[in-house]
Amino acid sequence: MEMLTKAPKGTQDILPGDSFRWQYIEDTLIDIARLYGFEEIRTPTFEHTELFIRSVGDTTDVVQKEMYTFNDKKDRSITLKPEGTAGTVRAAIEHGLTGGQLPIKACYITPCFRYEKPQAGRFREFHQFGVENFGSSSPSADAEVIALADQALRTLGVTKIRLMLNSIGCLDCRPAYHTALKSYLEAHREELCPTCQERLVTNPMRVLDCKSPICAEIAEGAPKVIDYLCGDCATHFDSVKKRLSALGISYEIDPTIVRGLDYYTRTVFEFVTDAIGAQGTVCGGGRYDGLFAELGGPSMPGMGFGMGLERLLLVMEASGARIPEPDRCEVYIASMGAAASVEAGRLTAQLRREGFFAECDVMDRSLKAQMRYADKIGAAYSMVLGDNELKAASATLKRMDGRGECKISLGESFMEELYQIVLGRQEDDLLDAAEKL
Ligand code: ATP
Ligand code: MG
Q: Which atom of ligand 1 is the closest one to the Cα of 61?
């Protein structure tokens, strides 16, 4: 029976009392992306499996071990998206966006699915905020995308984080590097994990990204791709660094960053933290100039990142970031008796139509219990309706903090009077805020 009352391993419920934290970060991220000209794209949760094999790469951990792949009823192989870039590129090609105004700037918030061992900061269903710039091969696009991630993290109050930067070159400079890397790895062949022994032949750079401790140790001594950059890649990388410095964004060069997906070229980066345990990469991204052509589209450069929202929330917490509390109920209308309950419902509906956060009893509780509830939900004002109030068409609106009350008509002028009272309260709030400045 546990199957019915326990969510699958590696998944999480985001409950009503907690969802405001998600709404806050999601709204903030999309708002910041807009400042940079990125507009939201929504692509399907599942795609043809082939799309991910081609884009993420068939020698990566994601494709080899982590994908949720199944056949649908017509025997098509389908995969739940493990990341957001592939679908975005597919959509841009399919809808001919690449033939329109460049650059294309798209952003998204999406669930992602990877069959991994769940632990702190690692889930089987997780969420990514991502941005993609298609069409610019200029280092200015790299700097802009990194600056967006940096501003997002700062705005959300993340302090305990560092930007790690590397370049992994292009198809021109990689052969020389592969040769050097292969001969180094050959010398350690026996020690590598079985998967990496195969990768040594098929895609030696993937060994550098292997999670097995022995492979990671061997990777540390490997030749660095940054020492093998061709002239163009070196110039590109220099310009990215210069631009980041001009933007006041500090970074560290980390030649061990190669990123877990095959499609990256040139600039790669990660925002990492020590504050949330072993899974410290909050945001990872880079340039992928070969991906469009790989998927059969027109040749078109790309640059983007994916930021894990679960890890983002963890590092925000570790940084002591403040998340604004959600709005509280403004008016609670309590009632005694059937007629008053109907009137409470009518007035509450009227308030809501005017945009107020208003509540009344839907549990058929006693007046005392209704007032306890109003207190618990933090209502700013309350009002009690009984036979006397109905008869007089007038009630008393009270501040729940005990700092005052006044009569209010239940007739035609109800809204007008209420506006005056509540606007008065807003003026108080403004005065309070001004004093704090
Ligand atoms: P890791 O090294 O942690 O496995 P990755 O290189 O596989 O990360 P990317 O494919 O670059 O991760 O995904 C971008 C971001 O998505 C990561 O930096 C991380 O914040 C988040 N992420 C990736 N996998 C998971 C997961 N299983 N659970 C939660 N967040 C994840
Ligand atoms: Mg991973």
A: 7
Residue nearest to atom 19 of ligand 1 (CA): 308
Ligand closest to Cα of 118 equals: 1
Q: Model confidence over 375-411: pLDDT tens digits?
A: 999 999 999 999 999 999 999 999 999 999 999 999 9
For ligand 1, is residue 129 a contact (CB within 6 Å)? no
Peptide bond into 223 cis (omega under 30): no
d(CA 359, CA 344): 9
Tokens of 292: 């469009």
- The span from the CA of 374 to the CA of 380, in Å, is 9
User: The dihedral of CA 342, 343, 344, 350: what is its sign?
Assistant: positive
pLDDT per residue over 167-213, tens digit each?
999 989 988 999 999 999 999 999 999 999 999 988 899 899 888 89
Closest-CA residue, ligand 1 atom 8, reads 281
Q: Is the CB of 281 under 6 A from ligand 1?
A: yes
Distance 260 CA to ligand 2 centre (A): 7
pTM value is 0.93
Helix (H) or strand (E) holding 50: helix 49-56
